[in-house]
């Protein structure tokens, strides 16, 4: 007997990428924490966004948990899919990003989010990379910038992990994230340069190229480095280049139809803002402050705009329909 087919509108079609919403909101909260610290602002935008991100995470966990229980085959197919598997890592990363956002507000809540997220991140990295190695279906065309997500999650871990875990655990995550980001970079660039234009639904993932150098720089300093170190300064240069490259593609990207993947713009921009504003606070030129402020403004406007558009999509049932 064949397996039942999910109806046209069903929880079975809810994408795991919905956790990128919590990532984007939480990352923007962290960016605002940094802006308040850097410019001595008297605003509570970061706190409001942190609580909003936690609410989004709770709703996403409930909805996706229901999908796993009611449609386990659909969830398993997503976790082992050549293109979609990378987005599974948005689950633990969203927890660790919110752990950073809540660190100055509630250390116990931050610790709970971090330990849960870090444990899941360690497991997800192994399982996703095993899929990439063992799945004979995977071809160059399946590679996309979101493949960085499971790797970048390891670089995110030390940002709150320094406050919650022994040093060797944080260096473990940093080492994996650094080595495999650099290992994946030529593979992803080859896909982008010579294997054809990326599909429209995945076009927003081009912004993810901004995230690894930004998060790596933040983690390096968090682990004891300084913004004046050659490594940190080099990474900041790459961040600025990636922002310029993203801006050069803005006209084409804004014409891409809405999909949950559009939230891929938010976390990288927020991470870039956090890195650049932190560098400015440590003595970098005003150029870093201007670029960081622009990145944070863009991330905030995107969170507001995409939040409204996602609400419309939820009301219309678009998030539980099969991809077109």
From TrEMBL:
GO terms for cellular component: plasma membrane. It is found in: Membrane. It comes from the Bacteria. It is a multi-pass membrane protein. Coiled coil: none annotated. CDD domains: TDT_SLAC1_like (cd09323). Its main location: membrane. Keywords: Membrane, Transmembrane, Transmembrane helix. One of its GO terms (molecular function) is monoatomic cation efflux transmembrane transporter activity. It holds the Pfam family SLAC1. The chain crosses the membrane at residues 12-32, 44-64, 85-106, 112-133, 145-165, 171-194, 206-225, 231-250, 262-281, 287-308. PANTHER family: DEP DOMAIN-CONTAINING PROTEIN, TELLURITE RESISTANCE PROTEIN TEHA. This is SLAC1 anion channel family protein.
């Amino acid at each position: 007997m064949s397996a039942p087919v999910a109806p046209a509108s069903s929880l079975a079609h809810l994408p795991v990428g919905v956790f990128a919403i919590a990532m984007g909101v939480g990352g923007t909260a962290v960016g605002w924490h940094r802006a308040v610290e850097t410019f001595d602002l008297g605003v509570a935008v970061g706190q409001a966004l942190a609580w909003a991100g936690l609410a989004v995470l709770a709703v996403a966990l409930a909805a996706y948990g229901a999908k796993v229980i009611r449609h386990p085959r659909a969830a398993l197919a997503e976790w082992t899919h050549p293109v979609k598997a990378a987005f599974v890592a948005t689950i633990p990363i969203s927890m660790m990003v919110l752990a950073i956002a809540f660190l100055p507000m509630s250390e116990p809540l931050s610790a709970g989010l971090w330990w849960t997220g870090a444990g899941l991140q360690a497991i997800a990295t192994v399982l996703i990379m095993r899929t990439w190695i063992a799945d004979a279906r995977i071809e160059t065309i399946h590679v996309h910038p979101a493949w960085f997500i499971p790797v970048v999650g390891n670089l995110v871990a030390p940002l709150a992990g320094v406050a919650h875990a022994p040093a060797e655990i944080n260096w473990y995550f940093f080492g994996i994230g650094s080595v495999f980001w650099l290992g994946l970079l030529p593979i992803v660039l080859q896909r982008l340069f010579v294997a054809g234009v990326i599909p429209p639904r995945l076009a927003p993932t081009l912004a993810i190229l901004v995230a690894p150098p930004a998060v790596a720089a933040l983690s390096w300093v968090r682990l004891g480095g300084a913004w004046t170190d050659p490594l940190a300064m080099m990474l900041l240069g790459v961040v600025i280049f990636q922002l310029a490259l993203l801006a050069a593609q803005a006209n084409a990207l804004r014409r891409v139809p809405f999909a949950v993947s559009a939230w891929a713009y938010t976390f990288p921009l927020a991470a870039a803002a956090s890195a650049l504003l932190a560098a400015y606070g440590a003595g970098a030129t005003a150029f870093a402050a201007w670029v960081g402020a622009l990145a944070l403004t863009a991330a905030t406007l995107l969170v507001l705009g995409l939040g409204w558009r996602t609400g419309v999509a939820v009301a219309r049932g678009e998030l539980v329909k099969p991809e077109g």
